[in-house]
Amino acid sequence: MTTEGQVHLVGAGPGDPELLTLRAHRLLSEADVIVYDRLVSPEIMALIPAATRRISVGKATSHHTMPQEAINRLLVDLARQGLNVVRLKGGDPLIFGRGSEEAEALRDAGIAHDYVPGITAAQGAASTTGVPLTHRGLATGVRYVTGHRAADAALDLDWDGLARPDTTLVIYMGAATMAAIAAELIRRGRPADLPAMAVASATTPREARVVSTLSQVAEEAAGLEAPVLFIVGEVVSLCVAQPLPELLTDLPMVANA
Amino acid sequence: MTTEGQVHLVGAGPGDPELLTLRAHRLLSEADVIVYDRLVSPEIMALIPAATRRISVGKATSHHTMPQEAINRLLVDLARQGLNVVRLKGGDPLIFGRGSEEAEALRDAGIAHDYVPGITAAQGAASTTGVPLTHRGLATGVRYVTGHRAADAALDLDWDGLARPDTTLVIYMGAATMAAIAAELIRRGRPADLPAMAVASATTPREARVVSTLSQVAEEAAGLEAPVLFIVGEVVSLCVAQPLPELLTDLPMVANA
Predict the structure, then answer these.
(1) Strand B112-116 and strand B6-11: pairing?
(2) Do the Cβ atoms of A234 and A194 come closer than 8 Å?
């Protein structure tokens, strides 16, 4: 290591610490400081040595989230102090993770950085529920969209494309808008009884699922705690009530480098 | 471990062994036998202890690939011998991996099985090229499709949906059909000069990239060796010529359990 700072934009995966990549696990052990947000599970945060500095930049309510520009500045400042920074994000930094916005700020500031992909929530939910994202005869492809919208903005989605029967549709951050999305998909011709599911905190001990239909899933999932992912499509009919994966309790602690 | 056999359907990720999940790495160490196909990188196969039995079910040319039904039977047979089987697949078993077809055969045979997700090729290519799959203002979502088609079958894709400007399009197994896909997308209104790239063997020492346009990318990528992934969309304009990631040479060998 030189004294020059650097930033690793690292995906933490969906929550189960054993779904960290080997590289993410190593970088956590080498970091001087970890900048994380609310989608990183407590089980993963528990792996980080107590002596490692950690900075939270997002809490459960959006009111306490640091603006993106402030996060960008923070990363630049920490790297300029010569620190080895891990920017730890739930899922994958380049799928709804805004990792590329942070990378642009780092590039503009001349700071070395790289990406480490992570298992995204759709993959985590697929693995624990047994619902494939593609399956011969049911789905020839998969599509990830976000139900999140800026305050006062209308949902501007490609409705006709979303209503295609041969594509599994995964909606991230859709808790507030799923009812409207479902209604519009039905209006565009998708069957009201199309299989649909909601999965909260997939791959963690808090995982909860609602297996339902397009017309009912938003209402039935109303009690789930965030983060909630929706999966819509014939593939949901393959859902099997698999036992939740055992979380290892003897995962190797990350050693402070 | 009981003497009852089981099958883990495990994603090996895009090729870099450090992008294995901790769980995949552990299961490789515990397996009695590993059933793998051609998309698993040699770097990952090299991690497996020499004494562990390994069975290849797919070679570089489709002519030497074991039919899916024979793979299903093999997995059932091995598990019935009481073996702990890892079915190792490139990428993620539930994204173009046919993991759910194998799971159906295992369920029908009453054999315990589970899934371990893996980093899919799109995520690997995004991380090494710096091309995000979503990015505010450029892509509100991402879509994975396959360019593979059965012999003599026409490509039956959702062309209008694929031609949407706000979605990053990732085409798996498209080497043979990318020129036809690009021509059709242009006919449906996508600009001929839309940024598009091809990435071969992302995250491995064999990674090669062509950054081009929709109209040119298939021709320019003709010399790349499989597997080749295509990424189409404005996000490709963010491609930065990042150095390839250093492959660790001191990755912990998997110990035979």
Answers:
(1) parallel
(2) yes
Q: What is the H or E stretch that residue A90 is in? A: none
Q: Which amino acid is at B147?
A: G
SS (H, E, C) A121-172: HHHHHHHHHCCCCCECCCECEEEEEECCCCCCCCCCCCHHHHCCCCEEEEEE
Judge: B145–A145 Cβ closer than 8 Å, yes or no: no
Q: Which residue has the tokens 């519009």?
A: A184
Task: Pick the closest to residue A43 from A19, A10, A9, A7 (CA basis).
Answer: A19
ipTM greater than cut 0.90: yes
Catalytic site residue B1?
A: no
What's the whole-model pTM score?
Answer: 0.92
Least confident interval from A145-154, B79-88, B220-229: A145-154
pLDDT at A168 over 60: yes
Count, residues in chain A: 257
Tell me whether A241 touches chain B (CB under 8 Å).
no
Q: Among candidates A111, A27, A52, which has minimal Cα distance to A76?
A: A111
- Distance in angstroms (rounded) separating the CA atoms of residues A30 and A33: 9
Reading across the β-sheet that carries B6-11, which strands appear in turn?
Answer: B53-56, B33-36, B84-89, B6-11, B112-116
| Out of B107, B115, B134, closest to residue A95 by CB | B134
CB < 8 Å to A25, chain B? 22
B132 touches chain A (CB under 8 A): yes
Closest chain B residue by Cα to residue A141 = B145
Specify the DSSP class assigned to residue A256: P
What domains can you pick out in chain A, each with its CATH number? 6-116 (3.40.1010.10), 121-238 (3.30.950.10)
Q: Do A238 and B143 touch (CB under 8 A)?
A: no
